[in-house]
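Q: Structure tokens for this one, please.
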Amino acid sequence: MTPQRVTLITLGVADLERSKAFYAALGWTPTNDEGEVVFYQINGMVLGLFGLAPLAKDQGRPDAKLGTGAVTLAQNFTTDADVDAAYAAALAAGATPLKAPEKVFWGGYSGYYADPDGHVWEVAQNPFWTLNADGSLALDTA
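A: Here is the predicted structure, written as tokens:
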């Protein structure tokens, strides 16, 4: 088993029901809802939403003030129009706009929004990357 992998990304959220509604509005369907945490299967890994206080307790630091915004999650698309549609859908679901999609210095097209808890998402089209049919990246490892 390769050590270079991520199997689960967990986002701490202030209001689990609000976050579940936001991701549902984006078309996400939970794979498992355990009450304090909900999981979504995504292309070989899982995204979890976990209440901030229960997450801090689970980490063994119940009094910690957990923060957001230092990590960017990204979704890549095959066209600029798909990026625009994903950005518009996120805003319609309640996301905060950070940077509207635009042509960028590295040759692609991207924009950023924050989910209701401030977790930053990038939506992008990268002309140098190929996407598999399921939306996962097909990076050349040669």
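A few notes: The beta strands are 8-13, 32-33, 37-42, 45-51, 72-76, 96-103, 109-114, 120-125. Residues 29 and 134 are 15 Å apart (CA to CA).
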